[in-house]
Design a protein that fits this description.
444 residues, 22 strands, 7-stranded mixed sheet, alpha/beta, Rossmann fold, 3 domains, OB fold (Dihydrolipoamide Acetyltransferase, E2P)
Length: 444
């Protein structure tokens, strides 16, 4: 087979050159936005109104990306990152911006998304639901790496846009009970006979106590099981081995749970380690309280909770006396929601399993309701909202982990006769650019 010479693309002086820029704003990923040579230049780590020396790393026809080398003129909103690994770890990306300024930036991004993707003229004031800016994460997944040649084990977080594992001894955004586990846990895992079969490590701060989940690719030897049981006792934590997607073996402790606020009491929600839970417990409580305030559930009202998970919203709504129907596409979550409702004595909460992005016309729960709550995945609920005429709720609360799709879906809600009455920013992930939101739509 003939082989033809093809010159390798070389790094030109253009793509490696250093320039000076001044950022005029931040983009939706938290990078500084500047202008140079007639095109937009995106610079991660640069703040608005800052001048800096940067190196061009990607040069396209319409835009360029650059690496921040040195800030020449500093914004008064810049602060010193609290994490020693901030420049290497791919987790947080806004620790260099003061917390109040982070939230103002997120409000501006949310406003711009609605202006771009919705047909709504004039937004209501955006309320910010926020809690602690540090020590807030109650769940985290740590990556591991084992160098067989040198018999070295590392545990930490992956670098940005890389598979490289940045070893850490603590993390300031994790709840203290989890952060304190990292160093002794890494030291003990390095001594295991099965260390080469260890995948990721999950840390969960449940109200029942800290939980460590070890994802294993092969069965753990008995000697390592004893070591891990002793480790769990020493660290005073629960410990489970995970083999399949939903296959867990507890070596110490039992199924975890967290508490959420009902209308009259604290409700207990058990979950499996692989279940989705809101990682920011403080903001989750504020979000639940706001949903109850906006929907104002009354005894006997019919409320439909779509994408209900294991009952995070369903149980507090049912605790108000409303007849709640929760629908979720994951069988295990539906079963867990039923168990949680039964344990709480909430016979007025009923749960179904259904693909909410599929055909729904034959579903027994698809009928008129008084109120509707949506908490979809990042894809949003565009197709599902076609069922609004059949459901005909008086009020809709929409919780979104992707505000761009919330803004897009609000156009459909508006077309069906609903107006945006309330809008809140959920600061679920302080120190990062990630934005979540919730909105109340009422029938016009």
């Amino acid at each position: 087979m003939a082989q033809f010479f093809k010159a390798k693309p070389k790094t030109s002086a253009v793509t490696a050159k250093k320039i000076q820029v001044m950022a005029h704003s931040l983009d939706h990923l938290g990078a500084g936005v500047a202008q140079s040579g007639g095109k937009v230049v995106f610079v991660p780590g640069l703040l608005a109104q800052e001048t800096a020396e940067v190196r061009i790393t990607e040069d396209k026809k319409q835009y360029a990306r650059a690496q921040l080398l040195k800030v020449l003129q500093t914004s008064p909103q810049r602060c010193q990152p609290v994490c020693a690994h901030y420049r290497q770890c791919g987790g947080c990306d806004l620790q260099h911006l003061q917390v109040d300024a982070q939230r103002q930036y997120k409000q501006q991004v949310l406003t711009e998304l609605f202006q771009k993707f919705s047909d709504i003229d004039g937004l209501p004031p955006i309320e910010v639901l926020s809690d602690s800016a540090l020590a807030y994460r109650r769940k985290a997944r740590l990556a591991t790496w084992y160098d067989k040649a040198n018999k070295r084990f590392s545990m930490g977080f992956r670098a940005k846009d890389s598979n490289k594992v940045i070893a850490v001894e603590s993390c300031p955004v994790l709840m203290p009970a989890l952060s304190a586990l990292i160093k002794p846990l890494a030291a003990s895992l390095a001594q295991l006979q099965s260390v080469g079969h260890l995948g990721h490590v999950e840390l969960i701060a449940a109200d029942s106590g800290p939980l460590v989940v070890l994802r294993m690719t092969k069965t753990v030897a008995d000697k390592d099981r004893r070591r891990l049981s002793e480790l769990a006792n020493r660290l005073n934590c629960h410990l489970a081995l995970q083999y399949g997607d939903d296959e867990y073996e507890y070596l110490a402790g039992q199924q975890p749970f967290y508490l959420c606020a009902g209308a009259k009491r604290q409700l207990t929600l058990h979950f499996n380690p692989g279940n989705f839970i809101q990682v920011n417990g403080g903001v989750n409580q504020l979000m639940l309280a706001k949903a109850l305030q906006w929907l104002a559930p009354k005894p006997g009202e019919r409320i439909l909770d779509l994408f209900c998970g294991m009952g995070n919203f369903s149980l507090p709504l049912a605790d108000c006396g409303a007849n709640v129907t929760g629908v979720e596409g994951v069988v295990q979550l539906v079963e867990q929601a039923r168990r949680n409702a039964m344990a709480a004595g909430l016979a007025n909460a009923t749960f179904y399993c259904a693909d909410l992005n599929g055909e729904l016309h034959t579903q027994p729960w698809l009928h008129k309701v008084d109120k509707l709550l949506l908490d979809p995945s990042r894809a949003g609920a565009w197709e599902l909202l076609a069922q609004l005429p059949r459901l005909a709720p008086e009020a809709v609360v929409y919780v979104s982990c992707n505000p761009a799709n919330l803004a897009r879906d609000s156009a459909r809600l508006s077309a069906e006769g609903y107006q945006l009455s309330q809008l809140a920013l959920l600061d679920m992930f302080p120190q990062t650019h990630h934005i979540e939101a919730m909105a109340l739509f009422t029938r016009k």
